[in-house]
Amino acid sequence: MQHTGDEVLQDPALAGEDLSTQRVLLALAVRDYGDDDDADAFAEGIDQQLDIVREWWQTPGPLPAFRQVPPPELKTRDDIENFLREQDVRELSGRALLLFVTGHGIPGRSDTHFLRLPASVEQRPLATAVRTSDIIAAALDSHVDNVLVIVNTCFAGSMHAELAALHKDIRHSRRRKCNLDVLVTCGHDSKIQVLRFPTLLRAALERLRRNAGITTPHLSVPDFMAEYARGLREDEERTFKLQRLVDGGDYQPSPCLPNPGYVHLPEVLGAAQRHEPLAAEYWLDRATGRTQESDQGWYFRGRKKLNRAVASFLGPESLRGVLLITGCAGSGKSAVLARAVTLSDPVFRKEPLYKMAQDSTPQDTLPPEGSVTAAVLARHLDAAQVAADLLHGLGERPVAVGATSDPAEVWSRQIQEYVRACGQTVTIVLDGLDEAEEQLRIIGDVLAPLAPFCRPLVPGQRQEEDAAATAPAVRLLIGVRSSRPEGSSSGGAVSDELGLLRTLKDTFPTACVQRTDSDSSKDDIAEYIAALIGDAMDAATVQDVVPAVVKAVWPSFIDARLAGDQLRSTTDPMTLALSEGWHTKLRRGIRGLLQHDLQQVQGLPPDVALALLQAAAYAKGQGVPWGEVWPTIAGVFLVPKRLAAEEWDTMIEKLLSGRLSGYLAHAVEDDRRVYRPAHEELVDVLLDPDAGLLASGGRNV
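RE: above sequence
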């Protein structure tokens, strides 16, 4: 089966596109060895190779799609030379070129490798076959910035010395500036198994789509080789692993290698998405109050007084200052900050979700458009990482740091320089400070130097308005956990506050403090739960159910979200709402809610689900990646029970697609998607050996 012209994209030259940005896929596949005993089976195997290569390199992404040239019918040497000439391969320019060569190979007696053609005579390769290195040279010595050649022929590994010599003849400037790589699938004395390459390549493609978790739109050559090798049996590793005969020396993602697992997130947020798209998902999750990532609802309700304070702080009359949003664990601090980040974002304000938010909130609680400059989640970050993320949020690239310099100090000075030079008020939102790795260093080395820019102007001070407007100015909106003051019905701060909140107030003496756990938050939680379950029950029933739930979960919005999700997802919400057993679990907080969900989960054994959640809680950094890591850690928590690797993948898929996914948040670390518990309070519960999460509580709830 030959690929026809209507299966490829239009030639960019004909479409008037910029050839310097084009990406091209060329395939030279010899399939019709008519005199061979296994000719038909070999031809079918070649077709499967071309199919999977075409599918892989059709992966969409941010760069122009690959122009896939139909593979020519190859019988003689002239057919190959005509193809190279017609496609002008030696003079080709562009961003990326993938050249795939497959067929039978002939090992020469002088370390020369030949591509065997149907008309070739094995005893006369010089006259009747083609030097494989000549085909490779046409691609490597072209004008394309990034070239990857994959050769799947018998004895391809024998080209090592030949290609090393060839590489020296490529002009030095090209070798220095461009990325040139050659991969081969067979050793110097190995014959190809025609179906092995497409089988291994398809398995790698499926892993990347399913569980590899690589978030970049392109793969590095080492990543591609590693994913391919994961499908090899132990006895195949020496024979059929990919070998890199020409090494471009670059471990960065290559435009030659689209990532089949790449998911383009819609640009719902602008500034918050600029550095890290999945960070935008964090702000959306918290702001909307949604229970699942796929939920398109806006459930944030209540907290009008608090939101007015935030909107006023972000308004044009407030050019400088510090506003601390504080409260006990789970009381909705992140939601308040995330609401400010999302509703101030110009890109988000064009989305239907913004219309829903507008319809459910007073106008004087909406922050002005563009009022937030940078938003950073400090969870599990050190001071240098927070400073770097702030710079990215400001649209700046962190400067290079010398071996003897402190990155946090260098980048902190860069932030200060930006503030002085930008000519406008810089508004920074920082969430999760209490979950950071270097809390005091973040305050002392990154935030404290901004204090002079945060100080409000003295009323009555004689300054020209223009000078005041252009003076360096910073607004800090910071979320930090603190214990709820005892004996204060209003939830106001008391004089003997300790911990981070006290440190922040000492650092910023003029800072304002707003709490999320005052008595009035009971009404806020009631509105939130009603919004979550409004579609599952009639209004009268909602009115009857909500007060009892609020009484059990206050002041935790996290518990309220989980309880609301359980009510809206059960087949009989009224029975659940009236169940004394369920209310007993509610009063236990997040432990009881998780215990209930573990008992109710379908298609996923509770002990396996718990092991996976515990593994995510145990993982350090930003979370646990899927791949081989998550099953390995979870297996420790599941002992003595054991699951095969494919069983773990199935279980993880069910976990991430079911109701228990609401207990997880995701992030990116080292270009891998990672998963972690949605709240630090949940981490404590999951790692508590005495939590009794699998204890039988009956199924009548």
